[in-house]
Design a protein that fits this description.
Chain lengths: ~200, ~325
């Protein structure tokens, strides 16, 4: 049964847990993916998303209209910031699987994947890893703007609402983030397949 | 690298908007013109467009589980959300109160040690100066000095056995309840002990001095001329042998007049029963001996601040 978003929000604010969960189901995938790109870790992203959902439930009374998606994503990004700070205070060692020689297996997923498109999977995994590494090198403000716009496909106005900054700030941060990403990926270009190299045309010159 | 290629910030701004297909027609014209002028900008634009495409093609992750809340989680979320700020505020307020209490006590203690006399004591001084004591001679000057300070010679709570002098000090300022000040009337001075009075400092307690010693050190007391400025004093003066076995006395004070209340602050009704007066004086003394806020309260507040703070921290970490 389709219920209008504003009606769901109103009911959830009145304590209707089903209506609240309906809202969560609508936005949880977007929220989790944003968190995943910011955190670069699935477990941490899940924690941050769950924390954001709980926080949203507590603060639903404080919602004063506007874009609900932007409001929720703002809570998600704040939860990610908190989680990142927590990780900085208490750094953890990832439990990566190791080979018999003790070398860490960086991409255990592709080893498990025995499908015919193995090479393509490897390339995609390498590309994704390179991109994620470059995203991680961005500072938090640039990272959030870039993920929201280029990965999640949000528009400038929504992102401005999420980060609570003027539109010009969004544009300038995005511009800097893209340039840094480009430089970072160019430096890692030798590891990428040719079709994914940003400066492949330049190299031809 | 980009600056070397003469790419301006305006170019980058237009480039980004162009990547998102959000250029206005006017901006589109401007951007096209810049592209034709700067070949490097074309390369940059192509690279950025490729980057945007790659970023957009990143696979989206499936959620590991639904993030919906159960009834129990919802209840817990509401409860936790209420408790944490509650303990946070409680801790902050307790800590603030502790700071205020300790700070105020520190400040007031310092002020009371260094400040001039209070209004009451000033009034006392004026009253004393108006009295005939102000005209006393050099011998009486010491008494004047003594009287210019807030001196009480009799503590009702201690009865007559507590007769003694006490120099002015901070205790006098903090009289909270009933304070009885007994002032020396010059008519009551036992001028026959003038020599002994010289030896006695202002407010000095002389109870420990044996009377025999006093008599031995003041043999010429009887030879001293009768002070004419204090008529009547000699009439009431008691010969030394008569007071030989009496309770400790204060030099300069006629023993027969000891304990006579000349003035009480605050002025109380003379019809007040003696027991009630004693009780008031006793309670006043007890009040004087205690600070404004008991130390136990401050320690309790400090402990509360610490406990509330720890609970708040625990809730925050647990969250």
């Amino acid at each position: 049964m389709f219920m209008e978003e504003s009606l769901l929000i109103e009911k959830a604010a009145d304590g209707d847990l089903d209506a609240f969960n309906q809202l969560v189901l609508t936005y949880q995938e977007l929220a989790f993916n944003v968190a995943y790109r910011i955190m670069a870790d699935e477990a941490a992203a899940a924690d941050a998303t769950q924390e954001a959902v709980i926080s949203m439930y507590r603060k639903l009374d404080a919602y004063r209209g506007g874009s609900f998606k932007a409001w929720f994503l703002r809570i998600v990004t704040n939860a990610c910031y908190d989680e990142l700070r927590r990780q900085k205070r208490r750094p953890t060692i990832p439990l990566e699987p190791e080979t018999d020689e003790g070398d860490p297996i960086e991409s255990p997923i592709w080893i498990e994947d025995q499908s015919p498109g193995l090479e393509e999977t490897i390339m995609n995994a390498q590309l994704e890893k390179a991109i994620q590494d470059c995203i991680n090198r961005l500072n938090e403000k640039h990272r959030v703007v870039m993920i929201m716009i280029d990965v999640s496909g949000q528009d400038y106005e929504t992102v401005a609402e999420i980060i609570q900054s003027p539109l010009g700030t969004v544009k300038s941060r995005l511009s800097r983030a893209r340039l840094k990403m480009q430089e970072c990926l160019q430096s890692a270009g030798e590891l990428l397949p040719d079709q994914f190299r940003l400066n492949s045309e330049e190299n031809d010159d | 690298m980009i600056r070397q290629e003469n790419v301006t910030s305006r170019d980058l701004e237009l480039l980004n908007v162009a990547l998102d297909h959000a250029l206005t027609p006017q901006e589109q014209v401007e951007f096209d013109k810049r592209l034709s002028e700067c070949p490097y900008l074309i390369t940059l634009f192509q690279q950025q467009r490729r980057l945007k495409n790659v970023m957009g093609q990143l696979p989206s992750c499936k959620v590991p589980h639904n993030f919906t809340l159960t009834r129990a989680e919802a209840r817990k979320a509401k409860r936790g959300g209420f408790l944490q700020p509650l303990f946070g505020w409680a801790s902050a307020i307790s800590a603030l109160l502790v700071v205020v209490i300790f700070g105020s006590q520190l400040i007031f203690n310092n002020v009371s040690l260094t400040a001039p006399m209070s209004d009451d004591s000033t009034e006392t001084t004026l009253l004393q100066e108006d009295s005939p004591m102000a005209a006393m001679t050099e011998e009486g000057a010491s008494v004047k000095i003594m009287a210019s300070e807030p001196v009480y010679l009799l503590n009702w709570a201690g009865g007559y056995g507590d007769i003694g002098g006490k120099g002015g000090g901070s205790d006098v300022y903090d009289t909270g309840g009933v304070s009885i000040n007994i002032y020396i009337n010059p008519d009551d001075f036992y001028t026959g002990d003038a020599v002994a009075m010289e030896g006695a400092g202002a407010g000095e307690i002389v109870e420990e001095v044996p009377l025999e010693d006093v008599m031995m050190t003041a043999p010429q007391a009887e030879e001293l001329p009768e002070p004419e400025t204090l008529p009547g004093a000699t009439q009431r003066s008691t010969p030394v042998p008569q007071v030989k076995r009496e309770a400790p006395r204060i030099y300069g004070l006629d023993p027969e007049k000891a304990g006579t209340v000349l003035k009480m602050t605050p002025d109380s009704s003379p019809a007040q029963p003696e027991n009630a007066t004693l009780e008031q004086a006793r309670s006043g003394n007890e009040a004087n001996s205690k600070p404004g806020i008991p130390i136990q309260v401050s320690i309790g507040l400090l402990a509360a601040a610490l406990i509330f703070g720890l609970i708040w921290l625990h809730l925050k970490v647990k969250r």
